[in-house]
């Protein structure tokens, strides 16, 4: 790849709209940042001293704002995706007020954004090696489907010689990971409870499926909480168009990819055909388990995983519905095989589950895809019906 040249974007799938990328300038010179105005209309001192323009759209037809990086907010390294992949940093929007002048907003009214800066060289190398996480597809799908109601929107997508910049709304609440494993006590008050969160997640995947798209990488990491506490989907880099009949083949040369803790067994095992909508629905059920227990369900959805064997194959999820004070016989046998004793606390939490939640989890999280509940049955489950009646 020549310097400044974009890696080859993916061919549009079906009726996908074209990708929109604007040129930009990073750390531009010769720009003026005016201090914010007081309510009287006179210039006042900057509410955020030290801010300077870090990024500006260089398309003369679309150059309407610039971005100033917030130095106090540490960037997030994305090296776990691929070495040198990039980072996410946080910035405020500087509205344009003149040809080369931008306004510094007051701190209380500043619009924050997250800027995902990706190395073109790393992206090209990753895709050339057969990598599946495609940022061009992510931009396409966010530009097409991002409504900040179901899917996180995109402010704009930019590029210079070395980097791609995906500018997105700042998600005040972070990802669901923070709520499930760090702030779980506030889910009821702030997010409306587990049923409200799960109902929100179902709406999101239904929105994607109505547009013929499978997320393919559904997990708490990719569920973002907005300031209004609405949860939206993020990171569509592994998404794909759902074929007629809802069965699809995995990439013939790529094998398994994704998060094995949130994908169904047939996908983790590398089966060539699987239900696209069922793949996302399975992920929502695993997230629901996280929500109601505060526990990771399993490392991978395979019989070799002891927790998966206990919860799914031995019926540990259904223990609470039997009104027992101890797990069923098959589950007890798996517990006996647990030399570390780590399954005991998980078993106790399963016994304490709301029976209606257990019923839903057991209906979706089954080894045989043909026996699993589909979205329609999940939505009509007694647990969600009770939630809707209360709402």
UniProtKB/TrEMBL annotation:
Any one GO BP annotation for this protein: intracellular signal transduction
Alphabetically sorted, this entry's keywords are: ATP-binding, Nucleotide-binding
Q: Please give the superkingdom of this protein's source.
A: Eukaryota
Output a single Gene Ontology CC term carried by this record: cytoplasm
Domain named Protein kinase: which ranges?
91-384
Q: Which GO terms describe its molecular function?
A: ATP binding; protein serine/threonine kinase activity
InterPro entries noted in UniProt: Kinase-like_dom_sf, Prot_kinase_dom, Tyr_kinase_AS
PROSITE patterns assigned: PROTEIN_KINASE_DOM, PROTEIN_KINASE_TYR
**Pfam families from the entry?**
Pkinase
Carries keyword Transmembrane?
A: no
Q: What are the transmembrane regions?
A: none
Keyword Glycosyltransferase in record: no
Q: Return the annotated region ranges for Disordered.
A: 1-25
- What name has this protein been given in UniProt? Protein kinase domain-containing protein
């Amino acid at each position: 790849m020549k310097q400044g040249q974009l890696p080859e974007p993916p061919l549009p799938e079906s009726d996908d709209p074209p990708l929109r990328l604007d040129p930009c300038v990073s750390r531009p010179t010769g720009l003026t940042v005016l201090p914010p105005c007081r309510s009287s209309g006179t210039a006042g001192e900057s509410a955020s001293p030290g801010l300077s323009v870090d990024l500006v759209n260089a398309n003369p037809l679309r150059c309407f704002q610039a971005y100033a990086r917030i130095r106090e907010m540490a960037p997030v390294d994305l090296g776990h995706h691929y070495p040198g992949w990039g980072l996410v940093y946080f910035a405020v929007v500087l509205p344009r007020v003149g040809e080369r002048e931008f306004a510094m907003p007051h701190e209380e009214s500043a619009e924050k954004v997250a800027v995902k800066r990706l190395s073109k060289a790393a992206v090209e190398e990753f895709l050339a090696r057969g990598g599946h996480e495609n940022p061009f597809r992510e931009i396409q799908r966010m530009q097409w489907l991002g409504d900040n109601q179901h899917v996180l929107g995109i402010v704009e997508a930019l590029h210079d010689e070395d980097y791609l910049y995906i500018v997105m709304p700042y998600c005040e609440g972070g990802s669901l990971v923070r709520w499930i494993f760090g702030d779980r006590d506030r889910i009821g008050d702030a997010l409306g409870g587990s049923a409200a969160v799960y109902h929100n997640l179902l709406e999101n995947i239904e929105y994607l499926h109505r547009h013929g798209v499978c997320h393919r990488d559904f997990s708490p990491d990719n569920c973002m909480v907005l300031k209004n506490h609405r949860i939206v989907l993020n990171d569509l880099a592994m998404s794909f168009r759902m074929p007629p009949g809802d069965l699809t083949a995995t990439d013939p040369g790529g094998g398994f990819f994704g998060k094995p803790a949130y994908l169904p067994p047939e996908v983790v095992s590398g089966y060539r055909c699987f239900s696209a909508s069922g793949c996302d629905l399975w992920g929502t059920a695993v997230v629901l388990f996280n929500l109601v227990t505060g526990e990771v369900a399993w490392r991978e959805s395979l019989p070799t995983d002891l927790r998966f064997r206990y919860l799914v194959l031995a019926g540990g999820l259904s223990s609470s519905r039997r009104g027992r004070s101890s797990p069923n016989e098959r589950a007890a046998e798996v517990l006996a095989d647990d030399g570390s004793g780590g399954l005991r606390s998980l078993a106790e939490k399963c016994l304490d589950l709301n029976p209606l939640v257990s019923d839903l989890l057991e209906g979706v999280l089954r080894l045989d895809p043909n026996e699993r509940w589909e979205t329609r049955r999940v939505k009509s489950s007694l647990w969600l019906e009770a939630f809707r009646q209360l709402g």
